[in-house]
Amino acid sequence: MKNRIGVLVMSYGTPESMEGIESYYTHIRRGNKPSEEQLKELTDRYEAIVGGVFPLRANTDRQVRSLQDTLNADPRAIDLEFVCYQGLKHAAPYIEDGVEQMVKDGIKEAVGIVLAPHYSTMSIGSYVKRAQAKADELGLEISFVESYHMHPKLIEAFADRVSAKLNQFEEAGADRDSVRVLFSAHSLPERILSIGDPYQDQLLETSKAVAEKAGLKQWQFTWQSAGRTAEPWLGPDILDTLQTLNKEEQVEDVLVAPVGFVSDHLEVLYDLDIEAKSIAKEMDMRLERIDSLNSDPLYMEALSDSVITLIGL
Fold it and tell me: Which residues pair with 287 in a beta bridge?
């Protein structure tokens, strides 16, 4: 009988259908229902990217299945059986549900990993805190991969996607070295800088490594998808960056590489593919985005190796 290791695969979560958007938004707002105007705005954004069909949740399901398959195919794990469980921050199955299911299934040892490569106390830290609290309550031994932002296979996967899109720019007649590559990630409140949070530094490290591997000449980092709160968020925002590139440098071709995201979801499919593209079009700029990692084998191997290394194999 192989020793079973539970793997709690955590992510932000997304509604299962258009009908689930209100309850999802309410959970994000810590139990406070959104106003009709707020709900309409979010619903309209989902409608714009999925047209009433909702494939986003299925993507996470595939990632979890693919990671389990990759873990169990690793020769280092020949005496182990990995069983992956989902734990979502703002939708069922919640993080606590995933931990509880492990215990019900008789799992004694577990590892937690988040589908986000970069650590912040406000993101990864909050996932870990919730999972650890539930594990302590139920007596489950669990350890966590807190970041994997410089894993060679993650860097390779991103660099491959950057190179593939630059090839398309070249085929369309653009000068490859003149294409401005914008690495981006979800903004967080500026206050994380005062506590020495590593989020920004890790993102810049990833961006630099990808740029070097892809042989980039023109690249920079920008933020996106900032929350609408009174406190300041990290910037500049990508929409402002595009305006600056157009007015001050007359940049015509832009490739966005959202290295802070690993999946196709709202911040990629709407904030970049619709909103940023619309702004770029108004300025006669060509804007393209690299394909998301989703279940890419290299990404799955980066996750798998991070888990297996953590448990000491």
Answer: 254
HSE of 45, CA atoms in CB hemisphere, 13 A: 20
Cβ atoms of residues 303 and 152 within 8 Å? no
Which has more confidence, 58 or 202?
202
Is pLDDT at 55 greater than 80 in this prediction? no
Residues 200, 304, single domain; the answer is: no
Predicted pLDDT of residue 275 = 97
In the numeric block, which tokens belong to residue 129?
A: 């805190």
* Same domain flag for 193 and 110: no
Question: pTM of the predicted model, to two decimals?
Answer: 0.96
Range of the domain at 214: 152-289
Which residues make up each annotated binding site for Fe(2+)? 186, 267
Q: Verify that 108 and 175 share a domain, yes or no.
A: no
Do 130 and 165 sit in the same domain of this protein?
no
Which residue matches tokens 């071709």? 253
SS (H, E, C) 148-203: CCCCHHHHHHHHHHHHHHHHHHHHCCCCHHHCEEEEEEECCEHHHHHHCCCHHHHH
Using a CB cutoff of 8 Å and minimum separation of 24, what contacts does 43-50 make? 43/18, 45/266, 45/270, 46/15, 46/18, 46/21, 46/266, 47/18, 48/270, 48/274, 49/266, 49/269, 49/270, 49/273, 49/274, 50/18
Which residues belong to the annotated binding site? 12, 29, 45-46, 127, 186, 267
Number of domain units in the chain:
2
Q: Are residues 303 and 185 in the same domain?
A: no
Closest alpha carbon to 188 in 247, 258, 260, 93: 260
Instruction: Find where tokens 């899109």 sit.
Output: 165
| Residue-level pLDDT at 54 | 64
Q: What is the rounded CA–CA span in Å between residue 257 and residue 210?
A: 10
The tens digit of pLDDT for each residue in 109-137 reads 999 999 999 999 999 999 999 999 999 99
What's 244's domain CATH number?
Answer: 3.40.50.1400
Q: Residues forming the annotated binding site for Fe-coproporphyrin III?
A: 12, 29, 45-46, 127
